[in-house]
Amino acid sequence: MRLRAAVSAHPIRHLDDVVHQRARLGILAIANEAHKVDFGCLRESLALTAGNLSQHLRTLESAGLVTLEKRIERRRPRTWVSITREGRRALQREIAALRAIIERVEEVNSLVITGGDVGDSDGERSAG
Fold first, then answer.
1. Rg (CA), the chain
2. With a threshold of 0.70, does the pTM exceed it?
């Protein structure tokens, strides 16, 4: 398999820049596990500052991937985060793209181990 021919269809192109960022992927993954998740729980789980988490939540909310519900509970403001239907679909697409990338890496690695042709005739790989 020549890498040069395969690059144009590489699954890396299917990663979503909004979703793929580590904190946003974490927010979607955690919110996917729960009906709704508290801001503080997200902040702790992802080891983010409140300001940083707020920025990521705004990005996800603007993209329609999460909804935010702000309430006063026991005289304290609380923010609850829920993943939307589109957020679940975006998370699933991201996971599918990551799986495809992993499959490609494993395929190439198995060819290298077995001595298959994964590069140019001089043994170097070409990406473009």
1. 20
2. yes
- Residue 1 has a pLDDT of 46
Amino acid found at 89 = R
- Sign of the alpha-carbon torsion through 108, 113, 116, 120: positive
At position 85, the amino acid (one-letter code) is R
Q: Can you tell me the distance from the alpha carbon of 49 to that of 114, in angstroms, rounded to the nearest whole number?
A: 47
Contact 126, 4 (CB under 8 A): yes
User: Is residue 99 over pLDDT 90?
Assistant: yes
Read off the DSSP letter of residue 124: -
Helices (H), the chain: 3-6, 17-20, 22-33, 39-46, 50-62, 85-114
